[in-house]
Design brief:
InterPro entries: HTH_MarR-typ, MarR/SlyA-like, WH-like_DNA-bd_sf, WH_DNA-bd_sf. This protein is mainly alpha-helical. The protein is built from seven helices and two strands. A hairpin with a 7-residue loop joins strand 1 and strand 2 (101-105). Helix 2 packs across helix 3.
């Protein structure tokens, strides 16, 4: 027996959510393939790149990194363990909080993050090339949605919610 889907879209390709789903899955496949030669998963890359980009003069905790990368703190902890096992990240005692540990990228981690980032940026450029001059408009639309999610608390980050409250 087949059913009928009640929808306001006469054509599935008119659904913004469905199209975002399709594009996201396609883009993620490209990024996974790009990162495979570096031995990194997508989330490992995101956390390693975010940590590499953060101010190394200020102690960075796991919570800080999770907020910066907008990732779940527990998942962040698991991924950091994997990066630590690969000698890409180190954990050290926090200078003022005995319960916390600070994070530092090793020289090998910095080198890998930079090589992988160049490949990811190249993959992004190739993937989004089809947008032509509309690429910046598309990026601006995504930034608007991201900011709205930050304000409403829908993207998981607490840093923007407390600033706007």
């Amino acid at each position: 027996m087949t059913g009928t889907l009640n929808t306001s879209y006469p054509d599935p390709n008119m659904s913004t959510g469905l199209m975002l789903w399709r594009v996201t899955n396609s883009w993620q496949r490209e990024i996974r393939a790009t990162l495979a030669p570096f031995g990194l998963t997508h989330v490992q890359f995101v956390l390693l790149a975010a940590l590499t980009a953060m101010d190394s003069e200020t102690p960075v905790t796991q919570r800080d990194l999770a907020e910066q990368a907008v990732t779940d703190p527990m998942m962040t902890s698991q991924v950091l363990r994997a990066l630590e096992e690969k000698d890409l990240v180190e954990r050290h005692p926090h200078p003022t909080d005995r319960r916390a540990r600070t994070l530092a990228v090793t020289p090998a981690g910095v080198a890998l993050a930079n090589r992988a980032n160049a490949a990811v940026e190249q993959a992004d450029h190739a993937y989004f090339f089809a947008l032509g001059r509309k690429r910046q408009d598309f990026t601006d639309c995504l930034a608007t949605l991201s900011a709205a999610a930050d304000i409403s608390g829908k993207n998981g980050s607490t840093s923007h919610r407390t600033e706007s409250a």
